[in-house]
Amino acid sequence: MSEKDWDKRRSAVALGYGHNKQPEIIAQGYGEFAERIIQEAEKHDIFVHDAPELVSLLMHLNPDDYLPDALKEVLVELLIWLQEVADNQSK
């Protein structure tokens, strides 16, 4: 697979709060595994947000990696917004 094709593959990252109440990467993957992450989220009524630039950035990290503070701030803001969207949809 060429580098160009590699970059075009579908990718997905699942985010959540870990045991330490900090945002963390729960799952990440490409291709069929990315599709499975998205399907599982939708199956459990978890909001799926399409943010290719953020996913691309997060795909460079491993789930066990420390998230830089600046990235944590962005993720916290995103997770808060997503929770508000979910709350509004349930009303």
TrEMBL record:
InterPro entries: T3SS_substrate_exporter (IPR006135), T3SS_substrate_exporter_C (IPR029025). It comes from the Bacteria. Keywords: Cell projection, Cilium, Flagellum. One of its GO terms (cellular component) is membrane. SUPFAM superfamilies: EscU C-terminal domain-like. GO terms for biological process: protein secretion. The keyword Nucleotide-binding does not apply. Belongs to the type III secretion exporter family. This is Flagellar protein FhlB.
